[in-house]
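Moderator note: this is an archived Q&A kept for reference. The question asked for a predicted structure of one protein chain; the sequence and the answer are reproduced below.
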Amino acid sequence: MMPDWQTLFALRPLGSRAMGLTLPELVGPVWFASANSADLTELPADSFLTSVESARASAFKFGQPRENFTLGRLAGKLSLAAAASASAPRSPALSPGGGEGEERVRRLRSFKIENGERGEPVVRAGDLKSPAHAVSLSHVNGLGVAVAFPARERVGLDLELIDARRAETVRKGVPLSAEEEDWLKTPLLPEATALLLLWTARESLGKALGCGLACKWETLALQRIEQVSEGGWSGIFLHHPQFRCWSWVGPEAVMSLAFTPA
């Protein structure tokens, strides 16, 4: 069953922030996690970033991009830690304080999320058991999200703030399929929100395919989009029908998850 936006982003202690998502036909769950600006007051960046990640964060000239990068890494590590601990439900709560909490922070730091040739996140180290997990992450101002999944699977995640100027950029710069144009004419969503749903769905597919923004945009078009719950949507892709997409519309942002069923 597809969880709603409120379930995904419910305020929970950092140690239990990640949740398992059961995707259709996949053998096991993927692990979704979110992080927000307030989390960095509880868990300073230097407590969970590796030296390489800290150096990359410091390279950003402005504070917001640096925070966004940090939140994406925190969400990624939370999702990876949840995947690693899936068989140990009594793992200690995450806390920057002493005792067992310190051990959990050490585990977060042990996950090294670097970048591949196309800028995609690559898990280089950590205490994940076999089979290895990969991670897809995204971030916007003040919010980071990630999903950890078995490396043999193909999964991508993208998040966008609902913004009229951003939607206008999509309208002018992204060639839409006839099916997408027809869907935009339905009154189920405001046009700006609908355009950003299409954008996140396409970008999530690009991440799942491993080409990211280097893909031709027309090859990432959606063929069918259906509302499955309040704020929840499901779709399939025109040129990649083996992939499915789940999309969530929240009060201020839109998020999409692309995956290929087994």
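Archived answer notes: The helical segments are 5-8, 39-42, 51-58, 63-84, 100-110, 164-173, 178-184, 191-209.
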